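User: quick one, fold this
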Amino acid sequence: MSGLWNDFNDAQSNANLIPKGTLAKVRLTIRPGGFDDPAQGWTGGYATRGSTGAVYLNGEFTVLEGPYARRKIFTLIGLYSPKGPDWANMGRSLIRGMLNSARGISDKDQSPQAQAARRIGGFADLDGLEFVARIDIGTDANGDDKNEIRSAVTPDHRDYARIMGTAPAPMAPPAPAAPVGTAPTPAAPATPGRPSWAE
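Assistant:
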């Protein structure tokens, strides 16, 4: 029988992990590291330079909805590594996926609108970005398991609209016009990213 208090072989090492492959809507907060390299377009103090010379964005991803709401996942987004281009390429790929997901663009879409949506004015444009992430499991500096975000889910995925909250809204009947001389009812403030009918 498992769970006995004299045998700990079946105890999970980290029961707090979100299962690998879980899809969740998250918000990225970049924890500023104060490192700028304007020649690379790294401005605003968002990037962090590590002791090895690697440069990255220190990402804090907060799960917004679902069973893991308010959980935080910390993932570094690679910008530069002295060891070669792989880490930066993975970082670029993740950011592309995040922009596709946040802006509702298929990864295959090469239209001018899609290309414009994959451009940013600076890292400030990523801070606060909300998108659908695929949650993974990696290891921390001590070799322990930890959740990570390595990829984003784009509108091509069948669960994207449901998780992002962009499923088509039912058609609302047109509101009757207010009679002249009556004060308009103040509209409730819309919550960003939620359809008005879900308020």
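User: anything notable?
Assistant: The chain has a mean pLDDT of 85.
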